[in-house]
């Protein structure tokens, strides 16, 4: 990168010009004259506004374009030279230094097309290219200027300085080894910034770290400024992210792998939501408001949309060893940071071991299924009969609930309206859970059904429960 003193020396050559009064109208003259006053007072934004208005009145005027180009170069250099402390204490709004330099380059190229024989035009282009750190193109621009004026001392000096910059850049590239400093570390996790987000108050954090912090309050973790932003949709700092990826490629790859491991767990690793016992095929709605579970939901939504629902075992008073995997079918983030979820039970599992991770529980699980025993023809026939009778009774209850709803009478189990989509009797284990998932069971009864590995027994119990439901409906 060019030294500030060298750039300042070149920019001093580009003083602005006045428009001849007798050639231009009074309006254009006054605008350019006002812009020149603002330029010399270092009010570069005001100068640019004046030059732009004059350019609209007299398009293609090389003096106006040249002056505006100089103003773009100066403001770009001014923004680049600002210290981090100045930017944090007094943040500025508007375009970034690179955009100003690109606008300067565009004006410089138009000036060259209008003043091909003017060395100053090539100074302008060279200055803009140096600000963009495009040194090879800047070198070509200087050589083009020397073809126009071979005896220009300014262009010769510019060529020598560019040679020193190029030599210094090569030497630094060979000797310099990037170091991980506080500028690239997240102050929350104390690791390399990953998907960095810069808050309006000027502090940068990993996106996931800021999300986790804002689960507890909407203030900046560093200066406690109230933040009216949504980190999930707030844009990543593209410039900072590119610098980190190019400067620390190995460390960035490690951070990426680390973040993905939190969202994309192994097949037998399951984050746990401790609330209630859920059965396979059972559907329910959840309102996630605790900070630890908000973090967990964000991670599973970046992964396979699945988690374990586990309840407390009434017999032991601790978390049950048996639980059910649920899949999130709908996830709605709410304005206050909560999540509304629609989930459905999938597979059963047994917890072999568990541990805490960022405040919530994670477990290594063993998947369980019903034991398939070899039975005779009579036993199979009995099982099919019980399943068919249970299916017929379930259909009858569904019809009864629909009729009660249409006639305005309230059914004791209107939830049976949601019981459509009955699995076929080919998969009796799934059918057995569908059967019992719509019944009003106590947590201890649900837990017993999850532990049970006998399909016949589960269907028989479900049939008993359903008959009791049918009798209650008829009483109503």
From TrEMBL:
An example of a Gene Ontology cellular component annotation for this protein is: cytoplasm
Name of the coding gene: LOC120250666
Q: Where are the TPR repeats?
A: 28-61
Keyword line: Metal-binding, TPR repeat, Zinc, Zinc-finger
Please give the Gene Ontology molecular function terms for this protein. ubiquitin protein ligase activity; zinc ion binding
> Does the record's keyword annotation contain Metal-binding?
yes
Name of this chain's protein: LON peptidase N-terminal domain and RING finger protein 1-like
Specify the Lon N-terminal domain's residue ranges: 267-470
RING-type domain: which residues?
186-224
